[in-house]
Amino acid sequence: MQIMVVDDSKAMRSIVMRAVRQAGYEATFVEATNGAEALKAIRAAPPTLVMVDWNMPEMNGIELLQALRAEGNAVKLGFVTSESDPSMRDLAFQSGALFMLTKPFTPDAVKAALAPVLS
Amino acid sequence: MSGTGGASAWLGDLEAAFGDVAQTALGKGEMTVTGRTALPRPEYQGAYIGLVSPQGAVQIGVASGEGGCQALARGLLGMDPADPPLPPAEVADAVCEVINIVAGAFKARLRDRVTSMHMGLPTFFRGPAQPTGHTAVDVADIRVGDIPAALILVYPRTHAEE
User: Fold this and answer.
1) Best of A17, A85, A100, A101 to disrupt the B interface by mutation (most B CBs within 10 Å)?
2) What burial class does residue A63 get, using C-beta atoms within 10 Å of its C-beta: 0-12 exposed, 13-18 middle, 19+ buried?
3) Calpha distance B71→B81 (Å, rounded)
4) Which single residue of A32, A86, A98, B75 could bond A38 by disulfide (Cβ 3.0 to 4.6 Å)?
């Protein structure tokens, strides 16, 4: 299983990868620092799951998701973000996101988000 | 800023949001507000993030000394005391992420008073914010665990004068 973690913060990418391991998943990780970089990498080699921040430079998370779906790419994708507005959650799920994990997250929240997606 | 209580009233929301994050993401236990001032200490460094809504634009920040920022970064990363110091670039990155998380909690606290608030991207700084003729700065001096720090709210002066 390969998981792509997309966040402009190196610290947060590290925290997300550690949280996934602590949730009990054995995965290899690919990192990207913004949506545009992730889009190129996903086109070249789609991972099992993309865990993406919302607010990033160049291309943000929702723009990445919408770009993927517009070109027919159905890669599994969920948000890991400090955003929790209901309108943004609605937009994320309507656009095809599988979960929206709000920072700061607990180990239980990570398990709850990933279990239905990776089972 | 009608109906929102005014941006100057949001410093309490910022304190509460940071307090939540200190206990969860930073693992630092309870945060204490030790005072309120108009400017953070000049030797402080930290991170700001902008928040824009139809009711106005503000910036929020968290600042501390070099050692305090190192401690905040290490707290976020869950590092062991025996781990070597983080290089300055990684401290800056982590403290930016701290204020990003705080901004999310701050937005959530204001949700019933402020509609459609959009977050920008955080930036790291050294030294205090300088208020201009158009802006005002409110600062809460805090202690989080054993770290002295400051929470900063920069807001349009027109709102401050409401």
Assistant:
1) A85
2) middle
3) 10
4) A32
Nearest-Cα distance to chain B for A84, in Å, is 7
- Which chain B residue is nearest to residue A11, measuring alpha carbons? B94
* pLDDT, tens digit, 9 for 90 and up, residues A35-91: 999 999 999 999 999 999 999 999 999 999 999 999 999 999 999 999 989 999 999
For B7-156, CATH number? 3.40.1550.10
Sorted by where each begins, the domain ranges of chain B are 7-156
* Contact yes or no for A85 and B93 at CB 8 A: no
Q: What is the predicted ipTM?
A: 0.91
Please indicate whether, in this complex, the C-beta atoms of A84 and B97 are within 8 angstroms of each other: no
Q: Would an 8 Å CB–CB cutoff place B69 in contact with chain A?
A: no
Record: contact A15-B24, CB cut-off 8 A: no
pLDDT value of residue B29: 82
Q: What is the model's pTM?
A: 0.92
Q: CA distances (Å), B148 to each of B16, B69, B124, in order?
A: 16, 10, 18
